[in-house]
Sequence to fold (137 residues):
Amino acid sequence: MAAMACWSAQAQAVKPVKMVIGPDGMACEYIGETADKYHVMCQDDGWVDKKESRIEYWSPEKGKGWVCCRKADGKVNIYKSADAKSAVVGQLTNTKGYIPESAACLGLEKGWYKVNKDGVVGYVKARTAWWSAKSLD
Fold:
């Protein structure tokens, strides 16, 4: 499996990640290009025709990418609103030896990631989570 690039929004500002969106909608990280193809990295590296693809810049602020629990062998709560006193509507776990659970990032608001996990929309404290432009699956 390819290494996953993750960032903590609390620790540093996340620079947008250049992504190539293929004709099937699959998003891969941009590596380089030739006159007619993009060199990309998904699970492995490969090439995609430019005519059938487009470039997007992903960041949590743009509501793109994925969020997972940053604590090894831990879990984080997903809250109904961007307030730790609101109801817990789900969790993201990170079990040692397994790929961490992830949720689609819908945005970043005042230190909270807005996420969608299995159709449930909620908020995760940014300081407890990692953001990645690549899917963890």
